[in-house]
Amino acid sequence: MSSKKRYIYRIEGIVQGVGFRPFIYQIAHSNFLKGYVLNNSLGVAIDIEGEIESLKKFDNSLHVELPPLSRVDVIDKTELEFFGYQDFEIRKSDEKASKHTLVSPDMSICDDCLSELRDKNNFRHNYYFINCTNCGPRYSIIKTVPYDRVNTSMSIFQMCQKCKSEYTNPMDRRYHAQPISCEDCGPEISLKTIDGIVLAKNSEAIDKISSLITKGHIVAMKGMGGFHLICDATQNRVVKELRERKKRSTKPFAVMFETIDDIKKCSNITNDEEKAITSIQRPIVLVKKNAKSSLISDLVAPYIDRLGVFLPYTPLHVLLLQELKKPIIATSANRSGEPIIKDAKELEKSLGNIVEFYLDYNREIVNASDDSVLQIIEGKQLFMRASRGFTPMSFRSKYTEKRHILAVGAHQKNSIALYLDNQIILSPYIGDLDSVKSCEFFQRTLETFKKLYNFDPEVIICDLHPNYFTTQWAKKQNKKVYQIQHHFAHILSCMFEHDLKDELLGIAWDGTGYGDDGTIWGGEFFICDRKSYKRVAYFEPFYLLGGDKSIKDIKRVAISMIFDVVKDDDFSSFKNFVDLFDKNEFSILKQMHQKNINAIKCSSVGRIFDAVVVFSGVCESVTYDGESGLIIESLYDEGISQSYEFYLDGDVIRYKHIFAQMLKDKNPSLIATKFINGLVDILFKISNRYDLDIAFGGGVFQNRTILEKITKKPMKQKIYFPHKLPINDGGIAVGQLYNYLI
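Request: output the structure for the sequence above.
Response:
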């Protein structure tokens, strides 16, 4: 019996552009095996032969020692007749069907590159664009696949001999690292005034922008997927100035720190949060503020007890923080409600009244992407925004039919999803589609994916809401259109992630979503499977007076609730809230309520949070989505066990009686705590009526306190939350696809 064998491996997943072929080459050589490896239309093919024991070692390495950015979905192994190869080689890729190659996300600088960046004896010491196959830009620089240098924005830079020798050496970690460069052959950076006048270049530019930030200037800097607005996070005057210039009165800013130890000085982080913050994706992570620390300005994240923190993820950020030695606000450079700016000309045009200076570089950002945002709850990640570092996010589908299907997601926090011959691909975060530029960004992102994958959808899946931009766009495309209810799609997204098919209880709480009856839903309990749903409980509706105006002017939600509970026009108990309006406005709102004029019925838990914030006396208007939830969460007192009693009347959850009790309680912390406890109590009461597992979805479940109370309570059912997909509207598109792919 021969001691030698030959196998063909067919491997699918994220295995291109992540150092997979040199990894195979190296373990084949170390085990004295012969054959070849190449990229093909599905992933990677390996033809390998040699001694049986050596092949076993190779197979083990293939399963347990993968490159850090790779992901293997399928390994198909077939034995063939021994051939007699003389060596092992990396063969030229099969180009014919390369449009199926999965595009990898951008990744932060790896530890090896960081070490070289700081090594004075390395020729890339303090080089602003150091990278290798284990880190650096990918999605942001790619124009089309295959992921070769010629198809990226690095194509205009010719490699020097030093870089070329690494690029062509299969034993080097920079083998076929497409953005490879050094100070002799790569992009250069420039510090400019907002009028475009160059003040300094390269290392001098970093020194000067650091000095400007220290002196209190507001600047912009080009990052991986777009520009950041940057300023000193420790100076109240500067943060106040940024808020005034950007017209962003209270929405929190993310803070970038030089080291994890610096983050620990300003926050109370868990081990799991530390792992997320220091991961190769380098997301913004929401953590608990350290009340004893006074380093960060109180104006960075006012009225809440959370802070969004992250570490530098490009060499440029590392060098800036190394020079500054202080934390900075690093927030997306954009106008409110618009996508992140990736181009210097657009920055000069749009943000000239905000920014005084900016740091640019001459490598084009082809595809913009914002920073990812998540929090860690009970050791697991929960996405608020999935973008840089995580997206494009791909999943191998069990649905095997070869088709092209597009899901266009929701209107808020939009992302799109593609079904492409066994793969589901989620785009980076696009944002709220309330502005012309955001809608243009939606279309640009779609065109990017069409180009990357030769993707032409046969079917387009969208929301039920007739006024969503995505719905209207879908119906103009002359394609078959399939519509799915918003909250059902939330539950389906969770079901897809956890591969759930059987009947379950779906609980979807959020701010808004178009219901089957034409009203606004958002406090839903469904009995559902992949195909259908039945609404078995929901929160008692109320009117949004003036429609969308109530979403920011939340005292309108409160007065609408008051109109619901007051009898005989006796508003004396609620005089403080009535006095929030002048007589004319109060009269108009009352008529809206009585005559159902410009008043939309709503059962959204997110809007009930708005009313509670007003009743607690904390504020009467909000400036960003989810602000009420964050405020109530920050007011929550673990020492209070009392709760407001919600009760079920048929399939309607009654709760409006609690507002009179809030008047008696007065204390904001007591009100917030009893409200959250009451919400959790009614959730469990309804859940216990059904012997079914539970899937959750919707933006309200971003509330850390609610989630922790749910996950810590012993339950007879299994509970499921999305952890890979955003729990808010950013995951809707995948849920839309999951319903269709039956």
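The mean pLDDT is 94.
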